[in-house]
Amino acid sequence: MKTQAVVVANDPAFHSWLQDAAGSAVEVSLLQLPNDQDPTAQLEARGRVELVFCEFDGRNFAQRAAFIERFTERHWQVPLVGIAAADNPQWMLAAMRAGARDFLVLRRDDVTLADQIARVLRRSSAGAATQVAQKSGKVHGVLSSQPSENIAFLAEHLALGVLETVGSNERVLLLDLASPPGAAAIFLNISATYSALDAVNDAYRCDQTLVDTAFPRHGSGLYVLSLPEDLLGTPTVDSAELLKLLQVLRGLFGHTVIALDGHLPVQLLAGVARDADRLLLLSDQSILKSRLNKHLLRALRVEGCTLERAGLVVDDYRRRLGLEPRNLAELFELPLFAALQGEPSHRAVSMNSGEPLYTLARKDPYTLGVKKLAAGLISGQMSAQSPQLGFLDRLKGA
What we know:
Largest sheet: 7 strands, parallel
Number of strands: 12
Mean pLDDT: 88
Number of helices: 18
Low-confidence stretches: 128-134, 388-398
């Protein structure tokens, strides 16, 4: 029996384009309607419909996106694909956010069109939800009490270290919800049109197609989602939607590194702390940061977090400068995972140039320390690290 497909389009050229690519196993029919008319009733009246294509253009993309959202809520089992005569990122994002499984462009996708249609049908028949449930990626949190660019910097290098270790066998995502907003994307020189807030809002419709078409990707292969860099004030993040997204991401990525700070709601932080496979509390040796982190941990424990999978990472460690890492760990009632050192100028150059330390300074103590952290996350065996003293520290006998 042939698969019944309908193309909702004003231009009949889409009908022949799709029918020729789909082949004899799929019967494609055309539904032409005014842009302001909802096609749902007409589609339902046709009886068996197993695949829908929906045209987008500059006049109708908002109406068509609203139609896709309504249709997928009522007929979630029917895959819906956006189509267009031009390659327009705004139309593509509108379609994917509304729930489209893919987005195809006339003349751009001619060569791969048949394979893309077949892939959509295979994914639909297999059941995306079943595939997600069978996978279980890891989630690793990086958290500090106050906004700081060092949170995203650690999370960035941790994610890159994980990716370097697992190679192409698994996908790795960096999800940066910490402030300053957009730090991870800026540090990796990524210009993003799809943000972490978009992904949270799309939690219930996030799938592999959305990842492939919308998630920004670094040249290393790392997927990166950051807050919009023009965001002012504290971001509004729905706790339930974020936790739902993390569960979906476990099915789509082998490892997800999420960066957070204490300005986000404590209920959200507690939810991530309970859900994460590992939680790294980032602190330095200052009295101020130490006390603020202690207050954060107390708030998490009040929320019912036992923090049994959490550990301390001390940043920019200097001997005889302030509180020693092991004393801080005792104060926080956490195991010490690492005391990171590094050359400050290397970090500044990395942040400003958009190049990670892995390419700029592979022997920097910070690079080596974070690589050990990444290896511990992958193996599940976290142990305290001794500081990697730099040349000047050794020369001074620090």
